Amino acid sequence: MPEATETKEIPEKKKVIFSAIQPSGTFTLGNYIGALRNWVKLQNDYNCIFAVADLHAITVRQDPQKFRQNIYEAYALLLACGIDPQKSMFFIQSHVHTHAELAWILNCYTQFGELSRMTQFKDKSQKHADNVNAGLFTYPSLMAADILLYQADLVPVGIDQKQHLELSRNIAERFNGIYGNTFTVPEPYIAEVGAKVCSLQEPTKKMSKSDENVNSWIAMLDSPDVIMKKFKRAVTDSEAVVRVGEGKDGINNLIGIMSAVTGKTADEITAEFEGKGYGDFKTAVGECVVEMLRPIQKRFGDYIKNKDYLAEQYRNGAAFAEKLSRRTLDKAMKKIGFVAK
Ligand code: TYM
């Protein structure tokens, strides 16, 4: 396990990347392919800042004990994926108070109409009809605060977060329009392959850990056995030809997953499985996913046992993030006209 690092200043020139993930249960294969593995790759070329977005997660009710464990696990799993605290700033969102502060301010520069149009708000308020709280509604302003605090140039996310990012851009532009240049206007960074990994059971929907049908999603910590079973049960079609095509959402999704994992093109995959049945294909997709996740699961097992190491890393990350983000918050508050302390 690497040594804990001293807090260092970020070197100036590289572009800044910010992204975050909610610690609401285990991560899915969709989270990994759509976002996390891209974070890992970007660490060498950018100044990367990553967070476990625990404040976002309480927009739906959480069991306290489970929630705390999920936050630890999220932090450990991101380390296991390859987020390197020596290269990137990596912290737990609630440890850095500037996020909640700027979120309040940005709420006052975000319109009711804009928030009402967010598809995630519409979906979640239907799903949790008994708890349509104000936090669920203003969630995108907190997300904008996360990003704008670090003057991020790029935000690597899956396609489902694109609308929230567009709103972040609008908020930044609106604020800059009133007060002069304050925030960098961030660009989404959406990978060509794997930006929407779909459910294995209803392949027009995105793969999501909140789906009640556990066979529809792969958890990153699922055992090899469970992963293979879930792929074997994946919905396909009656054509029995492994190719991308209309009305073949299930197979298209499986080809997309295999392509994202192995780097092979869809045509190469079609050629490889010519004359073979869906059974063979599904087994092969399952196997490549198992092999991809195996080393991550192993490292996760090591990290999660070492709470002291985790604490050292997230405290260090938060100290660094606090310092950096405070500059932006102070700048924004001064522009608005608050009295400095
Ligand atoms: P969250 O926690 O739902 O998901 C984390 C990341 O995983 C991507 N993702 C997927 N990509 C492809 N296929 C899928 N099936 C799939 N499911 C999830 C998401 O697009 C996301 O990139 N609000 C954010 C967390 C957040 C954030 C931020 C992100 C908080 N602050 C600031 C970027 C910048 C969320 O709920 O992601």
Number of helices: 13
**Percentage of β-strand residues:** 5-15%
Briefly, what CATH class of the largest domain?
Alpha Beta
User: What is the molecular shape?
Assistant: globular
Number of domains: 2
Could you list the spans in which at least 5 consecutive residues all have pLDDT below 50?
Answer: none
Measured between the Cα atoms of the first and last residue, the distance is 42 Å
Give the ligands present.
tryptophanyl-5'AMP
Quick structural summary:
Helix content is 53%, strand content 6%. It is built from 13 helices and 5 strands. The chain is globular, with a radius of gyration of 21 Å.
Structural topology:
Layout: E1 16-21, H1 29-42, E2 47-52, H2 54-57, H3 64-81, E3 89-92, H4 98-107, H5 112-116, H6 119-127, H7 134-148, E4 154-156, H8 162-179, E5 187-189, H9 224-232, H10 249-262, H11 266-272, H12 278-305, H13 307-336
Parallel strand pairs: 1-2, 2-3, 4-5
Helix pairs in contact: 3-12, 4-7, 4-13, 7-8, 9-12, 10-12
Bound molecules: tryptophanyl-5'AMP.
Residues 18-22, 30-31, 34-35, 53, 56, 143, 146-147, 155, 157-158, 160-161, 195-197, 206-207 line the site of tryptophanyl-5'AMP.
Q: Please, could you describe this protein's structure?
A:
The chain has 341 residues and is mostly helical. It folds into two domains: 16-194 and 307-336, HUPs (Rossmann fold, 3-Layer(aba) Sandwich); 214-299, Tyrosyl-Transfer RNA Synthetase (Orthogonal Bundle), CATH 1.10.240. It contains 13 helices and five strands. The protein has helices at 29-42, 54-57, 64-81, 98-107, 112-116, 119-127, 134-148, 162-179, 224-232, 249-262, 266-272, 278-305, 307-336, and strands at residues 16-21, 47-52, 89-92, 154-156, 187-189. The strands form two sheets. Strands 1-2-3 form a three-stranded parallel sheet. A two-stranded parallel ribbon has the order 4-5. Bound molecules: tryptophanyl-5'AMP (TYM). The site of tryptophanyl-5'AMP (TYM) has 24 residues, from strand 1, helix 1 and helix 7.
